[in-house]
Amino acid sequence: MSRAVFSKFAPITLRWHTEGMTPSAQATVSPAPTRRARQRAATIGEIKTLALRQLAEQGPGGLSLRAIARQMGTAPSALYRYFPSQSDLVTVLCVEAYESLADGLAAARDAEPPGDHTRRWVAVCHAYRRWSLDHPADFALIFGTPLPGYHAPPEVTAAAAGRAIGVAADVYAAAVQAGAADPGRTEVPADLKTGALWAALAGHKAADREPALAGIVLTAWASLLGYLVTEIFGSLNALISDTDTLYRAHVRTVTLGMGFQPALTAPSAPDAG
């Protein structure tokens, strides 16, 4: 794998909570954005779209604010009103990519019955692939070759990689608690120790979970990512004519390796898409 998969990108997501608010407060409508705000948002969106297109077409070394400005018909200095540096632009793109991935994983999980832990895990695995194939530029940005000279700021990046991997970790932890998966049937040692990065990614949940569970989830996630990297960046499509069927088999192999009950992993998985 070309980079540390889970260490890179994660936004600190702001969430609005309405608990304790009065009905009148909840019903308050925010004022419509001003014309200037709409124009600024449109410009930022155009910059991000062109940046992703550059990365998809030219690779990690091809990102250029000057080229983006030229395509937009503006001076390069004008872009710095929106992004102080190229690194800031890349960080925003990575944050949004991980948020998009996490949203897709959570939606797939929630589409399955809460008590069917195996189906929820398999659904997350297939959503991982579906998102990767549907968002090749975003996938390349966060899982491909590192951008030259870019270092993600940890104070900005520790929560969205955590949100994405957290969906998988939550599903597996629930499966273990319900008896649908047995960590003792895996090859991950029970006395495995986690590091500071896992604590940062898992947040307050890190203290509530056995370290071995983190090892099992990370091993499974890395295995799935390896398949996707080979499919998207490599020659898997030339080697295998039916990569959908192969991925379903790979997911079942990973699922069994995590200690899920064999009888619950019979091939009735969600569509690999």
Explain what the structure shows:
With 273 residues, this protein is mainly α. It has a domain at 85-265: Orthogonal Bundle (Tetracycline Repressor, domain 2), CATH 1.10.357. The protein has helices at residues 23-26, 35-58, 65-72, 76-79, 86-110, 117-134, 136-143, 154-157, 160-178, 196-202, 211-233, 236-239, 243-257. α5 packs antiparallel against α6 (117-134) and α5 (86-110) packs parallel to α9. The longest helix has 25 residues, at 86-110. It is globular. The relative contact order is 0.14. The model is unreliable at 1-27 (pLDDT under 50).
Layout of SSEs?
Blueprint: H1 23-26, H2 35-58, H3 65-72, H4 76-79, H5 86-110, H6 117-134, H7 136-143, H8 154-157, H9 160-178, H10 196-202, H11 211-233, H12 236-239, H13 243-257
